[in-house]
Design brief:
2 copies of one chain form a homodimer. Chain A has one domain: Cytidine Deaminase, domain 2. In chain A, about 40% of the residues lie in helices and about 15% in strands. Chain A is globular, with a radius of gyration of 16 Å. By secondary structure, the first copy, chain A, is α/β, with parallel strands linked by helices. In chain A, helix 5 links the parallel strand 4 and strand 5. The longest helix of chain A has 17 residues. The first copy, chain A, has a 5-stranded mixed β-sheet. At the A-B interface, strand 1, helix 4, helix 5 and helix 7 of A face strand 1, helix 4, helix 5 and helix 7 of B.
Amino acid sequence: MTEIAFSLPAWVPAFVQAAFGQAAGVPATVEDRMRLVIAAAWRNVEAGTGGPFAAAVFERDSGRLVALGVNLVTTQGLSLLHAEMVALAAAQRALGRWDLGGAGLPAHELVTSTEPCAMCFGAIPWSGVRRVVAGATDSDARAIGFDEGPKPADWRRALEGRGIAVLSEVLRDEACAVLQAYARRGGAIYNGGGDSSSDRPRGRG
Amino acid sequence: MTEIAFSLPAWVPAFVQAAFGQAAGVPATVEDRMRLVIAAAWRNVEAGTGGPFAAAVFERDSGRLVALGVNLVTTQGLSLLHAEMVALAAAQRALGRWDLGGAGLPAHELVTSTEPCAMCFGAIPWSGVRRVVAGATDSDARAIGFDEGPKPADWRRALEGRGIAVLSEVLRDEACAVLQAYARRGGAIYNGGGDSSSDRPRGRG
């Protein structure tokens, strides 16, 4: 195999057009941006295209959407396809730049419906985003059985020490509602690490 | 955009065939496996297809190669394409399973020419591998200017606490040699986080 590909769900373009099209304009506040990301998490669950997580990259100051991502772990078959990773990769491809903080680019931010897991936390500095905006907390994710991985307790400070601002608990209740609804309807708490531990929380997206 | 794809370098299939073909057989020891991964890191540098890092997923007990990955950050334009992430994704696609520790599969291991950065460390539990074998240390990577990110100091213990064994410094000198050669020839120490800090270490692959 020499090529590895994954696809965003078929509903994404129309969703983005409806939410961010010319008439709708750009979401000015972080709450407006988070509301759209939470709506994408709902849609991902309702459409059966992945776990209850979404994220997007915006231009921090203008609010222009660069790319939307949703959790695709089980549906696209790759454990790395957490919403944040998908959004960052989609944004880098949209701009043709592997560094969203590169010369000549406006500052970018990652808006995520749930705080990043250990992997996505580690990916954030490499992506070049200047700010992270999170809705539900990692404890909210753990409360429904998802594992956030071996993330340092002082992860916010670690990002801020690298010049990346962190805004937490933006519309936390609304963001948490999608997690809880997913759990209530018996959505799969899919895990890495296999059969010997399939009944305890191991991973998420 | 609805599809995101990246490609392994064109030299990979022939390299794999030569190293792991029927005549060459399977590499029985972790040193044999590491030697092949280090050779792939050299090739990646010589071919100009990415940074001085390679990784591979093997069946832990048999030594069968499942997939090889190399660093592709700058050449494929995505900051997540560290060698370990590429190897894990390629292995998951090769097996058609997002969990390499899933039911019915043999135990898998990740052999990496340099210890994982913060992102790849966080990705390991979600991948389902049961063992990590590393060559050069994160301090070796930092010594030539690459940043390993905000990885917990006790990262080995965090993995072992999740049932993932860690073997460090396997052929460390040989693995380190490729990093040092890359630095000597002035290879780009590419970074995320942009222009304001382009002259200090920020990322790697």
